[in-house]
Amino acid sequence: MTFKPFAQVLFVAGMVAGLAIASPSPAALTVNKTESSPTDAVKGAIIDLVQVLDDETLKQPGQAARRRHKIEAVIKDRMDYEEMARRALGAPFSTLSPRDQKEFVGLFVQLLRDAFAGRMAERSDGQVVFLGEFRDDAFAEVKARMQGRKIDTPVEFRLVHYAQEWRVYDVVIDGASIVSNYRSQFTSIIRDVSYVGLVKKMKQKAVAVKFFENSPVP
Asked: Which among 20, 25, 37, 82 is least buried, having the fewest CB atoms inside 10 angstroms?
């Protein structure tokens, strides 16, 4: 069984492809003036990605690896991989030892980066229009739409507040959730070949992207 790329491609299209940000009316957003809001966090991620994608120096021949490193660094700083991995695995995550949990999170991160590889280079002519946000204690949802000549799609960013920051742990585009997509696949693999079999498959998939963890950012 292979890991289906559908949700990953949607995520890249919405957050990693560098969509511009449209400015909605102030009333459309719920913003706490004393601290960064969930919406601010998502906007910041997109702005940072656009800056990297529009950097003319990084578009030069021989700069592809450096450009990818910078894009991945932005994503790493803006996402809560542990929360994402825990939700993607579901109930089995709580039964793992701390060591096994750490291993799974690491493999999950590599799996995501492998999915992103080769799908981040182009700048979209579309934009993200932010519609509003909802908070429930340490969790939040930011609702928006991706709009362009060939796209008009609802997107929802799900975030958790951790260490004084809002971090994305799931993205739902047109009803397709990255976390739910992975959970479905992980559940199926565990049912067929056990959790050990799942880890083995993830390790095989992750081999191609281990360089990112072990090499310094240029």
From this structure: 25
Tell how strand 127-136 and strand 20-22 pair up.
Answer: parallel
| Identity of the amino acid at 67 | R
- For the entire predicted model, the pTM comes to 0.75
DSSP secondary structure code for residue 13 in this structure: I
pLDDT digits (tens, 9 = 90+) for 12-64: 444 433 344 454 433 333 344 346 799 998 888 888 877 887 788 888 888 87
Percent helix / strand / coil, the chain, rounded to 5: 55, 20, 25
* 28 closest CA partner among 95, 128, 103: 128
Residue 140 burial (C-beta neighbours within 10 Å; 0-12, 13-18, 19+): buried
Calpha distance 10→115 (Å, rounded)? 11
b/e code 105-116 from CB counts within 10 Å (16+ = b): bbbbbbbbbbbb
Q: Distance between CA 177 and CA 6 in Å, rounded?
A: 10
